[in-house]
Specification:
Elements (H helix, E strand, L loop, with lengths): L14 E5 L7 H13 L3 E4 L17 H13 L5 E4 L6 H4 L5 H7 L3 E4 L4 H11 L3 E3 L6 H5 L1 H12 L6 E3 L4 E4 L2 E10 H7 L12 E8 L3 H13 L8 E8 L4 H12 L6 E3 L12 E3 L2 E5 L4 E4 L6
Parallel strand pairs: 1-2, 1-3, 3-4, 4-5, 8-9, 9-10, 10-11
Antiparallel strand pairs: 5-12, 6-14, 7-11, 8-13, 13-14
Helix pairs in contact: 9-10
């Protein structure tokens, strides 16, 4: 696994597009997020269908075709420096294959930000466009709106990425001690498992530093998801693993038993409670960059800044 192409950092006055590839977006939260972006001296442009609702499926922000069209237009607009997701939910898998990936590659590298359901798009950008992407707080997400730490670390990553080369949650502990080097990848582990067998999917995390988290998945379902990845050989020769947040997944001690049972046998460093994902004050983490994971210290040190 090799490091991917890094997009350019943002500069004051940059035009950034806000899209909704997945679930419906609360208007008041969107407006609050846009105000924060304007306070950073960015020029946010909201895609036409961001506030849409699918006529039949109320868990989708508009039709698959409209969500894909918004994304395509935003990415291919030469005046747009970044494409930021408004929220997650569900729906990115339904529209990812409607995108023209030849046109996306031709448009060149840009900053892409999101997490949760957006995992499907992180994987697509890695596998089909070879681009570094940012796993971090979204424009209409509560953590972005209310948590100063999440805001500041994201802002620094976007504008001054050299200042956030060493990432630590302050609470990370070693499930399996040791250090590992590799290229970062990951997201919601349920979405990574759901990607198996689909066109253009990553066939293995070999040589990677895998950062995984999830929300609303009980212990037995996480066991099933990890077992599926193990049986598929997807975790063969992974270099190291960081476990993020597990909101609404049940008592952590029960989850920890599952993680130990399924992951310790891989024989690689594993750090838990790393502070990314659906938790309060979540870290922004670049996917596609070379890094060193120190499970004992609870740190992830990037070989180079997330953005060029």
């Amino acid at each position: 696994m090799k490091p991917l192409t890094r997009p350019a950092r943002l500069a004051p006055g940059a035009r950034v597009a806000v899209v909704a590839p997945s679930g419906p977006v609360p208007e008041e939260r969107l407006e609050a997020g846009l105000d924060i972006l304007r306070g950073w001296d960015l020029e946010p442009v909201v895609a036409p269908h961001v506030l849409d609702r699918h006529p039949e499926f109320n868990y989708l922000a508009g039709t698959d075709a409209d969500r894909a069209a918004d994304f395509q237009a935003a990415w291919c607009d030469p005046d747009v420096a970044a494409v930021l997701c408004a929220r997650g939910g569900y729906g990115a898998q339904r529209m990812v294959d409607l995108l023209d990936w030849d046109a996306i590659r031709a448009a060149g590298p840009k900053v892409f930000l999101g997490f949760s359901d957006i995992t499907a798009l992180h994987e697509a950008f890695a596998n089909r466009a070879g681009l570094v992407t940012l796993h971090g707080p979204m424009v209409a997400a509560l953590d972005f709106l209310k948590n100063a730490r999440a805001q500041e670390q994201l802002r620094a990553t976007l504008f001054e990425p050299e200042t956030v080369r060493a990432l630590t949650s302050g609470s990370g502990t070693a499930l399996v001690p040791g250090r590992a080097r590799g290229v970062t990848l990951g997201g919601c582990v349920s979405l990574l498992a759901a990607d198996l067998g689909t066109p253009h999917a990553r066939t293995s995390a070999r040589g990677g530093l895998l950062l995984i988290e999830d929300i609303g998945e009980e212990a037995y379902r996480l066991d099933r998801i990890l077992t599926q990845l193990l049986r598929a050989g997807w975790l063969d020769a992974v270099a190291g693993i960081a476990l993020g947040s597990w909101v609404d997944c049940g008592p952590y001690e029960k989850l920890r038993t599952v993680f130990a049972d399924r992951l310790v046998g891989l024989g690689v460093p594993v750090v838990e409670n790393f502070g990314f994902g659906h938790c309060e004050g979540a870290l922004t983490i670049p996917f596609g960059v070379g890094a060193e994971l120190d499970a004992d210290a609870g740190t992830l040190t990037l070989d180079e800044p997330a953005l060029a």
